[in-house]
Each structure stands twice: as C-alpha cells, then as structure tokens.
Write a structure and sequence with these properties.
Elements lengths: L20 H4 L7 E4 L1 H11 L1 H22 L4 E10 L5 E5 L10 E5 L4 E14 L1 H8 L1 H59 L5 H36 L6 E4 L5 H5 L14 H22 L4 E14 L8 E12 L7 H67 L5 H35 L4
Parallel strand pairs: 1-6
Antiparallel strand pairs: 2-5, 3-4, 5-7, 7-8
Helix pairs in contact: 2-5, 3-5, 4-8, 5-6, 5-8, 5-10, 8-9, 9-10
C-alpha cells in the first residue's frame, strides 16, 4: 500500500497573557470526532486553515471595494487653527499716503496678536473615469476572490478524499495481516505437533517463526503509518491532533465505480480554475479601461465655509467674520510624458497574456480529462484483476495447506502459497487505493468534484 499523503504543518507560537497561564496549564480534554467522508469534507470547509484564509481574502476584498466606493461619496473635512502672533510683521507704506514727502516710508503694523479660524471643506467628484471603472469592477473583484476560495476548497476536498479512503483501506490491510498471522500461527501449531510426532523437521517450525516475525514487523510499520496518517488528516481537517478521529465510512470496489459518468462529457466552464482565469481576464480588461479613462477630463465640485476671530486679547467671545465659497474644478490631462499610453499598453499585453493562458488551460484540461479517464478505466480493470487474483491465491493456499496436512505437500509449497496470497492481498489493497485516487482525479478533471 502507498505511503500516506504528506501534510505540511506550520507551527505558530502563541504567547498568552499571564492571567491565562493557569488555564493554559490545564488543556481541554480530547474530543472524539466520528466522521463520514461527507462530514469530513464539511468539517474541512469550515476549519481548514487554507480555506479559512481564502474566505478572509474575500472579506478583505469587500473592504477594498468599500474603499473604492468611498471615492464616489462626498469628502468632508473640518480644520481649526489658532495663531499667536508673537511679533507682528511690519510693512512699509509710501509716506505720501500720510502727507509725508515723496520717497519716504511709514512703518505700519497690521493684524492682531491672536487669530482663530475654523473651516469646513466639502468636495464631490462629479465625473472621474477611473473611479467609474473601479465601481464597475467591484462585483468582478469579489467573484475573483470567491473563485480562488473555491479552488482552495476543491484542492482540500481532493486531499481529504484521498487520505480518508487510504485510512479506510488501511483497516482492510490490517485485517488481512491479522488473518495471515492467524494462518501462520495455525500452521506453526500444526508443524510443531507434526515435529513432535516425527513427521516434520524442526526447520519447518523455524520457517513459520520467521514468517510470523516478518508479519508482526510489517503490521507494526502499517500501524505507525496509519497513526501518522490520522494525524495528517486531522491537520487537513483542522482538528486538534490530541483529539480522537474515527472514520465511519467503508470502501469497496462497487463504491469506486459509482457516481462516475465517463460518457457525460465535460465543459471548460465547469472547471473552477478556468472560471478563475476568465475573471482574471475581465479584471485585466477593466484595467485597460481604467488607464484609458485617465486621459478624460475629471470634474468635481467644492464648497468651503470658514469663520475667523481676530483679537489682541486672549478671548474668543468677540466678533467672528464669516466667509464661504462654492465652485467647480475641471482637470484636463494634457501631457504626462507618454506614461499613460505605456500603462494602457501594459494592461493590453496583460489581457493578451491571459488569452494565451486560457488557450493553454483548455488544452491542459483536455489532456487531464483524457489522462484521468484512461487512468480510471485502467485502475478499475486492475482492481478487478487483483480481486480475482486474491481469490485465486486464497484457493491455492487452502488446497496447498490441505495437501500439507495430509502429508502430500511440502513446507516449501505452503510457504510459497502463503507468500503469493500475501502479495495478492497487498496488490488488491493498492489497486483499490489507486482506483480511489483515479476516481478523485477524474472528477476533479471534469469539474465535478
């Protein structure tokens, strides 16, 4: 049987406040999780770290969209200013203003020691092509992030299927090993009796001991591999490693054959990665429009209201002077050193790249579907052959054992038959798992996973 799928585990150190140290020193009791494969998939969709982070990316994009939308709303700001003129500036005015001879100047100081102002500014974009395109692209941006989350979920689903059923099949593998151990122990018992009665050699008993040791060693390796596989599946599902996980589903060859419609055809649009790339193309097209619209004039309205208080004493209950204005601002881009044209061309080339990627992905999907279909058909055939071969090997072993018991067969023959039976059993388990993987890969290839 194949080794369990490798799962990369990132360990994060968490520092807790001192107040929580006592509670942390007493970990919660392990929880028992009994899951069918459907329940395991649902659990992973809620608790797998990669899926959760992909869904958080969607929430982040929602906030980015709010930021884009904010540009279309009125922008309101208020300012306040207090000035203490420690030394007022002196201006020189022509002397003739005050009856002095021409060519002379009179020093005059203007202003007050304290100046207090308060103002409110309001602006509103009336037309801006880039803002308009940004508003149009909001829905596509969300769909793009959601599709990425779906791709992440699909990848996790495929891995959950494979690891789950590998662990389910490991139960059958362990059961077969136990059955083989029981057979060899019975054979050893019979050989011991025959040896004690002079009808067999001590070598025959020793050979059985060697086989038993090998089987117990193999079983121990399988059990360790299964235990590690369960821990890997817990990480994949988002279950704490200390918790207990029980898999309630079973697996047989009929289940593997079911729910696979090889002749149903497929569509590129059923593939999430194809949908994701189509959305990327649409976003790139919005980018082209955004840079093109940046060459169009923008129009905005503005309004200002302010009040000013001027005093030589530190007080604010004097006379306040009001002022306000309203206006329109038209901004016409004339020349930016060809920078805008370069950005437009870059965006257009990005669209072309996406077109090439879509064409390549279509070819890749065709290849994946055909390859997965051929692999699945071959896996089903091999599974059937191995099932028949296992039954035949069991028949051969039983007949050889009967011959040995009545004295017409040799220890070598029964050892060979037992080895062939064990090999056939292992090959059948491997064929079952290969068929499971092939089925998952086929369903993923046609976008039906």
């Amino acid at each position: 049987m194949k080794e369990p799928l490798k799962v990369l585990i990132a360990a994060f150190g968490l520092s807790w406040p001192l107040a929580g140290a006592q509670a942390q020193s007493q970990p919660a009791a392990p929880v028992r999780h009994e899951l069918s494969v459907k329940q395991a998939l649902e659990y992973a969709a809620r608790n797998n770290v990669q899926v959760k982070n992909a869904l958080i990316d969607v929430q982040i994009q929602q906030q980015v969209n709010r930021e884009v939308t904010s540009a279309a709303y009125p922008q309101v700001s208020a300012t306040g200013n207090f000035t203490d003129n420690l030394k007022l500036q002196t201006q020189l005015l022509p002397g003739e203003f005050f009856g002095q001879p021409a060519g002379t100047f009179v020093p005059i100081t203007f202003g007050t020691k304290y100046v207090t102002t308060g103002a409110v500014d309001v602006s509103q974009i009336l037309f801006d092509g880039q803002v308009f395109v940004g508003l149009q692209a909001r829905k596509t941006s969300i769909q793009w992030k959601q599709k990425n989350a779906e791709i992440t979920d699909e990848t996790i689903r495929a891995n959950v299927y494979k690891v789950y059923y590998q662990l389910v099949l490991s139960k059958t593998q362990v059961a077969l090993l136990d059955a083989n151990i029981a057979l060899i122990e019975k054979l050893k018992h019979d050989a011991q009796i025959m040896y004690e009665n002079g009808f067999a050699e001590k070598l025959d008993v020793d050979k059985n001991d060697v086989q038993l040791t090998n089987l117990h060693t193999e079983k121990e390796k399988v059990l360790v591999s299964v235990a590690n596989g369960y821990n890997g599946l817990k990480i994949l599902l988002g279950i704490p490693v200390k918790d207990q996980l029980v898999l309630t589903d079973s697996m047989n060859d009929e289940q593997i054959r079911s729910e696979v419609l090889e002749n149903a055809g497929y569509s590129y649009e059923d593939r999430r990665d194809y949908q994701y790339l189509k959305l990327s193309q649409k976003l790139n097209e919005f980018n082209v429009k955004r840079y093109q619209y940046s060459k169009i004039p923008t129009l905005s309205a503005f309004f200002n209201y302010n009040r000013m208080n001027m005093e030589n004493d530190f007080r604010f209950n004097g006379q306040w002077f009001e002022a306000s204005y309203v206006g329109l601002r038209l901004s016409i881009p004339i020349f930016k050193g060809f920078g805008t044209n370069a950005k437009i061309r870059q965006a257009q080339l990005a669209v072309k790249q996406t077109d090439n990627q879509l064409e390549n992905l279509r070819n890749t999907i065709d290849n994946e579907v055909e390859t997965a279909k051929n692999t699945f058909r071959s896996s089903i055939s091999i599974m059937d052959y191995q099932k028949k071969n296992m039954a035949l090997a069991e028949t051969v072993y039983n007949q050889t054992k009967k011959k040995y018991e009545v004295g017409t067969g040799s220890q070598t023959e029964i050892n060979t038959a037992q080895t062939d039976l064990k090999t056939a059993q292992s090959n059948y388990i491997s064929a079952l798992y290969d068929a499971v993987v092939a089925k998952v890969d086929y369903l993923k290839a046609v976008g039906k996973l």
